[in-house]
Specification:
The complex is a heterodimer of chains A (about 300) and B (about 350).
Chain A: H1 2-32, H2 39-57, H3 61-88, H4 93-114, E1 132-135, E2 138-141, H5 142-164, H6 166-176, H7 188-213, H8 221-234, H9 241-260, H10 264-282, H11 289-296
Chain B: E1 7-10, H1 14-32, H2 39-64, H3 73-88, H4 93-115, H5 120-139, E2 150-151, H6 160-187, H7 189-199, H8 201-206, H9 211-237, E3 239-240, H10 242-245, H11 249-261, H12 266-283, H13 288-304, H14 308-317, E4 327-330
Antiparallel strand pairs in B: 1-4, 2-3
Helix pairs in contact in B: 2-6, 2-9, 2-11, 2-12, 3-4, 3-5, 3-9, 4-9, 6-7, 6-9, 7-9, 11-12, 11-13, 11-14, 12-14
């Protein structure tokens, strides 16, 4: 029984990481209607950037993140202006193809620069990498708890930002109708670029935690993209908080799967995702759409 | 003015008659090729045939069906696995290549019931999850030894030269067969439906196009075709390592070939496969920079030349080698209505 409780607790905490990686993907989909297939690879790019700063300057990854955040925001701006905006004109298929090509370019450039070695940010964390609280027979990693609370704080902050700031409201208006907002003096191009920058900030944070809680290589991106997508789809029926629910469901499924069978970790996650997907399409509900509608403040 | 006589709808043009004739001659030439080709040429051409299959199948799915999938490696890997599995169970290894592909096509049928209900981008990446899951499930089969993989040892009963020639013929037959199916499909009622759906799904549905069943036909065809390619690949490579076969790089190759050749054009997929084959032969040794180049080319084509090489030629010069469409010719200029 203790084992199961432990699996569930670890799964919930893991869900914090998944919701972090998922929220940027879901956010960009809601605002611009594109799924960025380079999402996971960009998180890995941020992870390498933070690793490089930490390694060369001997600073904590948290300090390195402060330097990497504006760089990732710049990446977001270039991504929007250089690729997404242009490709969105070609319909729904082109952004997928373009961002897929981008992911291939980035991951192979990372491979060229950093080689195939696995990297981790854990060595730069002192004892935080392995410190834990012991409650009964259960060990709770302090890092996992930190990631979970950062995820909650980030999602909360993003929700407040969208509902209470001028830029946040402009983003929601643009998501609703990019053509009409022009009439009330909102520049949709600028707003989309800002939204992509914000998404890339969350990607930078997710990339940092990816490196802290595990190892990564230049080719770790696609797996992160798949997790992000699964969490976003599973949690798709709520607000931005839906990604937290989705992340937790995915994390718990994986954790319990691993408990049943050593190979069960990934299988259980994918199976739960597909079961929820099948359930949702069989009642003919849009998978991502309801999340987008809620964000836009519609009821039907 | 007699409106009906002002336009003429034609399928076959003199150009397309010649091109089709050349195609048939080429196929016959390739079929008797092993008599005078050396072993190296046979292996290289086998590779090219597999690339053409991959490109044509992804093009059918994305270019005609409007279904962008980044998970076609699911079917490529399952095709290879089925071939190895069936041969291990005692089926003739060459027969198992084809039976395996058909079985994978059958497996894709239930998958299509829920995947095809997804929206464009959800479908794209949802297919990737399917591929990941297929990979993990194949690893559970004891025959495969997890990521270590296994070998297609049943093929060793054939002498190397005979084996390579048989694989060559199998690949040629699969390529010609699948291209013929795509060709006939495009000329049929289904082909018109497919393209109507690609251009506007809601509008197509409103005029009575059966959207779901039409997409399903394309999906299953693309799955079986990718599976045939995977089976042929494992037959020539002999070793089966799940990680290699279920890698997303296969889909990356398909996307590259179709984007460069010309998405949504029958000839473009073939052109793209030939270009990819040549690029790989020349630059494949460059390793990582070769892959960077492939990704960058795909990115640039999608942004600046979304119709690809063949599509752009078709737009500019109106060339169409194979009669898969209709063309409407105005006869008004030739015969003025008042005459």
């Amino acid at each position: 029984m203790m084992d199961w409780t432990n699996s569930i607790i670890q799964g919930v905490l893991l869900g914090g990481y998944y919701s972090l990686i998922a929220c940027g993907l879901a956010f960009m989909f809601q605002v611009m209607g594109v799924i960025n297939l380079a999402h996971g690879t960009l998180a890995v790019l941020a992870g390498f950037a933070i690793w490089t700063v930490s390694d060369h300057l001997g600073v904590s990854p948290f300090v390195a993140l402060i330097g990497v955040l504006p760089a990732m925001a710049a990446v977001g701006w270039i991504l929007q202006r250089g690729i997404l905006e242009r490709s969105a004109r070609g319909g729904q298929l082109v952004p997928l193809l373009a961002t897929f090509g981008l992911a291939v370019v980035i991951e192979n450039l990372l491979f060229e620069g950093f080689g195939a070695d696995t990297r981790s940010l854990a060595p730069y964390l002192d004892t935080l990498a392995y410190d834990s609280w012991e409650i009964g027979d259960i060990y709770i990693g302090q890092l996992s708890v930190l990631i979970f609370f950062v995820a909650v704080a980030l999602l909360g902050g993003l929700s407040l930002f969208l509902s209470h700031t001028h830029l946040g409201r402009a983003i929601r208006a643009t998501a609703e109708d990019p053509d009409t907002v022009g009439l009330i003096g909102i520049n949709a191009r600028k707003i989309n670029a800002a939204a992509t920058c914000i998404a890339m900030l969350t990607v930078a944070v997710a990339g940092m935690f990816l490196g802290m809680r595990a190892t990564f290589t230049p080719y770790s991106g696609p797996a992160q993209l798949v997790f992000a997508f699964e969490a976003a789809v599973i949690g798709g029926s709520g607000s931005l908080w839906g990604t937290l629910v989705g992340g937790i469901v995915l994390g718990v499924a994986q954790s319990i799967g691993a408990h049943i069978n050593p190979q069960g970790f990934l299988i259980a996650g994918h199976v739960v995702f597909l079961v929820i997907l099948v359930a949702r399409v069989s009642v003919v509900m849009p998978v991502f759409g309801s999340l987008a509608r809620r964000l836009r403040g519609r009821t039907s | 003015m007699t409106a009906p006589s002002a336009v003429r709808v034609e399928r076959w043009t003199p150009g397309s008659r010649i091109a089709t004739a050349i195609g048939v001659v080429l196929i016959v030439f390739l079929a008797v090729g092993p008599v005078f080709f050396n072993a190296n040429v046979i292996d290289k051409l086998t590779l090219l045939f597999i690339y053409v299959i991959l490109a044509a199948m992804w093009n059918a799915l994305a270019g005609y069906g409007g279904l962008i999938s980044v998970g076609q490696q699911a079917f490529f890997g399952l095709g290879a696995y089925s071939a190895v599995r069936l041969a291990n169970l005692g089926l003739n290894p060459f027969l198992s290549l084809f039976v395996g592909a058909i079985l994978v096509g059958a497996v894709s049928l239930p998958i299509s019931t829920f995947m095809l209900r997804l929206k464009t981008s959800e479908f794209a990446i949802g297919m990737w999850v399917i591929a990941e899951l297929a990979h993990l499930l194949v690893n559970l089969d004891g025959l495969i030894n997890g990521e270590t993989g296994t070998s297609f040892i049943e093929l060793n009963q054939y002498d190397a030269d005979v084996r390579h020639t048989l694989i060559y013929w199998s690949a040629l037959a699969a390529m010609v067969g699948l291209l013929a199916i795509v060709f006939l499909l495009l000329r049929s009622r289904v082909g018109v439906s497919i393209q109507a759906i690609r251009d506007n799904e809601d509008a197509a549905a409103s005029i009575g196009v059966k959207v779901f069943i039409t997409k399903r036909i394309v999906f299953v065809l693309a799955a079986a075709g990718a599976a045939a390619a995977g089976a042929l690949w494992v037959a020539s490579a002999i070793t089966f390592q799940p990680q290699t076969y279920f890698s997303v790089q296969w889909t990356a190759y398909m996307i590259f070939m179709v984007l460069v050749g010309g998405i949504g054009t029958f000839e473009g997929a073939i052109v793209g496969a030939v270009i990819f084959f040549l690029i790989e032969a020349w630059f494949g040794a460059a390793g990582v920079w070769y892959l960077v180049g492939l990704g960058a080319t795909a990115l640039l084509f999608s942004l600046f030349l979304p119709r690809g090489i063949w599509g752009s030629l078709e737009d500019r010069f109106g060339v169409r080698l194979l009669p898969v469409g209709y063309r409407v010719k105005s006869t008004a200029t030739a015969n003025p209505p008042d005459a």
